[in-house]
Design brief:
single chain, about 300 residues, alpha/beta, 5 strands, globular
Length: about 300
């Protein structure tokens, strides 16, 4: 009788442990964080010359819509523990400086490029690119203290051309003088190839290294089993050379099917999530509900 009691007690103990473990697993699944959204977007027109430029207020209003539509998606994809991107965002139009830039909570645009009739007035991909920088929030900012400059800009343009404009052709590249250190679209194509052929988590791993200042060139061998220079040579032979020979421009959606499937699956998962309350915020704001105001 005593032995039977011990057996029953043991079974109950095991069942209890399994229940606790399954409950802990269920709670862990439920604890997946959602996504953050802006709390406000302020449009700033730097001076009277900017204000007088035809079409700028309308362009900036459209840029604000792009920020609202993509902020949560980028935040979630580039999620790392404890990182919260800026909530109160400033969009600044000015008549000096770079075509586009990001610094802290501010995205800046030069009217010499975005002005209607000057070629850049429909360059919404530039807005998406700078928004990725705002979400990244690396130590040292765009000076690349968290990542080499070429890797940071390659990651940013890879996000642009996979999530925002996958049907838009990328620039033509001459393999004879191209390098992975060229940054922007050239490096972006290289990173997308790595994701398509080897490791769909490559950009997220690279981003995590940027935020934690743990970047090492070893990421390439760890993700693919091949060194950086070997990978670039392989990418050049398989992608750059035939495209250059045939005078074709790369289009991510058709060139990298495994990568695009990964992006589609992530977007479908993202659609099941809810906005995350920011620290100190009792209730999350509804998606797309961030305030917008204009200041001159």
């Amino acid at each position: 009788m005593k032995r039977a009691f011990c057996i029953v007690f043991s079974l109950l103990l095991v069942i209890g442990c399994l229940h606790v473990a399954s409950t802990a697993i269920a709670e862990e699944v439920q604890r997946e964080r959602g996504f953050f959204m802006p709390t406000s977007i302020t449009i700033v027109l730097a001076n009277e010359r900017v204000l007088a430029q035809e079409g700028i207020p309308e362009w900036m209003a459209e840029a604000a819509k792009i920020v609202m539509a993509n902020y949560g998606l980028y935040d979630k994809y580039l999620e790392t523990e404890g990182h919260i991107p800026p909530g109160d965002i400033i969009l600044r139009a000015q008549d000096t400086g770079a075509i586009g830039w990001a610094s802290g909570p501010t995205l800046g645009f030069n009217i010499s490029w975005i002005a209607p009739g000057r070629g850049g007035h429909r360059d919404w991909g530039m807005v998406a690119h700078e928004l990725v920088h705002l979400i990244q929030g690396y130590p040292g900012g765009q000076q690349g203290a968290g990542l080499p400059f070429w890797a940071m800009e390659g990651l940013t343009d890879a996000m642009r051309h996979t999530f925002f404009e996958p049907e838009v052709p990328m620039r033509s590249v001459n393999p004879a003088n191209a390098s992975y250190t060229n940054a922007y679209q050239i490096t972006a194509g290289f990173f997308m190839y790595i994701m398509d052929e080897y490791d769909t988590e490559f950009l997220r791993t690279l981003n995590r290294m940027g935020r934690t200042r743990t970047y090492s060139v070893d990421i390439f061998e760890e993700s693919t089993g091949k060194g950086l220079d070997e990978l670039w040579a392989e990418y050049t032979e398989k992608i750059l050379v035939p495209h250059h020979r045939d005078n074709r421009r790369m289009v991510p959606a058709t060139l990298f099917p495994n990568l695009m499937q990964h992006v589609q699956e992530f977007k479908e998962h993202f659609a099941t999530l809810e906005e995350e309350p920011r620290p100190g915020q009792e209730q999350p704001r509804g998606q797309g509900q961030g305030g917008q105001r204009q200041r001159q």
